[in-house]
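Attaching the record inline, Q. Sequence:
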Amino acid sequence: MTQIATNNPEGARAHARAQGGVLIDTMPTLPPSAADQWPEPVADEDKLWAETVGGGGYTSMTVARGTTIELTDVDGDACAHLALFNAAQTDERLNVADTIKVQWQAYLTTGHQLLSDRGRVLATIIADSSARHDALAGTSSLRRNTERYGDGSPHGGTPSGRELLILAAAKVGLTPRDIPPTVSLFQGVFAEPDGALTFTGSAGPGASVRLRAELPLTLLIANVPHPLDPREAYLSTPLRVRAWAGSATTGSTADSSGASPEAARATANTVAYARLRGL
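Structure, as predicted:
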């Protein structure tokens, strides 16, 4: 392969242009409709984003109200650590404690809401073939990964979730202090009677989760091992992300059918807020 010198503007430009058309397994696909692994009913014009996040990688995205976001554990060792924000008002963010206590449920799956610190619904889990998630332990830290793997820095071989989320936050104008406790998808834990957390691992390759954005939503995603994963190696495999256009809940009787009183109130709060804002 011919080496292109990059120590002058012409060489640097030629090198940059030579990268056009180069594809790797873990990258965004543009246009999104050119990507594979889309659900069959989704029309090309509704396909908004397609990306594969490598193990130890991260991404951020901002989507409109009503967008469906599908996350897939491709090979069985992905773990998606999510921080969520109301994109119209980013000081409103995911509140994991309220998500658990308002719904009387620590084990999130289909039908459960991801609630903000204002009693509103940021996203609803509308489909889940994994049921191996965690809203208790949070993500990994620089200190913990350094102690465990020898490095937790974002550009090292074993980055921590917190450090990657800081990078993701910076790309959407947020700071480290803005990052809330996260939920983790595809790697579960079980709370024992004495309060200890037991790691339950993944559901295996191909498990997926679909979220519906109930407000304009900014998502920060770090794909790193769960902090309670007992395996010695840093095991993190690709995470597939797809987003397509859709509609948020309207708060109608049909939408609320079977919902708990707490969920119905959170939905009503969300719909009223969105209507007042013209969202």
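Residues 48-277 form one domain. The longest strand covers residues 121-128.

More tomorrow.
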